[in-house]
Amino acid sequence: MLGYIFNFGWLDDLVRMLVENIFKISMDTHLGGSVHFFIFDSIKILILLSIMIFGISYIRSYFSVEKTKQALEKIGGLKAHIAASLFGIVTPFCSCSSVPLFIGFVEGGIPLGVTFSFLITSPIVNEAALVILLGTFGFKVALLYVISGVVIGVLGGYLIHVLKLEKYVEEYVYQMKMGNQEIVELNRKERISFAKENVKDIVSKIWKYLLVGIGIGALIHGWAPEEILSKYAGPDNPLSVIVSTVIAIPLYSNAMGTIPIAEALINKGVGMGTAMAFMMATTALSLPEMILLRKVVKPKLIGIFTGITGVSIIGVGYLFNIII
Fold this sequence. Notes:
Elements: H1 2-6, H2 9-22, H3 30-60, H4 65-74, H5 77-89, H6 95-107, H7 112-124, H8 127-137, H9 139-162, H10 171-175, H11 188-223, H12 226-233, H13 240-248, H14 255-267, H15 272-284, H16 287-293, H17 299-323
Helix pairs in contact: 2-3, 3-8, 3-11, 5-7, 5-9, 6-7, 6-16, 7-9, 7-15, 8-9, 8-14, 9-17, 11-14, 13-15, 13-17, 14-15, 15-17
């Protein structure tokens, strides 16, 4: 009974009844499959999203950005990269909203490599994406995805630190001094209010991306030719991961918007690693992010960041295709 509830079996049955009895569409048709996919995934993801954002936001209320910045200033070496990458998990949901925090960290004196560890991990992995991955692909895939995102962030940031690329940051950034903001402690009622507002704010910002992603996924689920996708983008095609990563880089979305697309592609025979690489590259390496980054770093550093992250994502894609 609990499995039926937590695996959304009840929702699946309700949507099937809706499609067949109210809309009068057979589930055996392409249209029926697409409509069911869209309605089921939209409701399921929004429920999971709201619950998880509330819970994590309540926990996050104990760890302000200012506290985190102060903590990162005291940590050195590889530990700082790990801490920054983990912090990225509980912060913004897309690359463009991560960039302002990245800029603040650089201006605040946090080492460049550490800030890149945050910037790489933040859009790839977050609590909302984690819960949707759990509900869509199960524990093993979700755990591997999170570990991969953190490892990419840590290694990418650490490599940028080793290469000593501070000279490729615009000079005015280091001339700016950010004052420390006062740390305000919240009571229980204020933390609950903060969590509720965070749910409203985040859902209001991402629901459009979410529905677009689910809509694309529904079309793929119902209409995309399974044999062609399986042949050219399946795990046996050695170039599929590279092609999917390169295609994804100019695109822009957040993890929640790309998960339904990845789900539909995998159901059609696309390799798990190919779909995961597409997800990671779309969220971590977007054109709007590069435009924002150009305000504070020079083109060469953007190129190095893109290269390191892109190669790492391709490696993770092949790893997924081998393991899963």
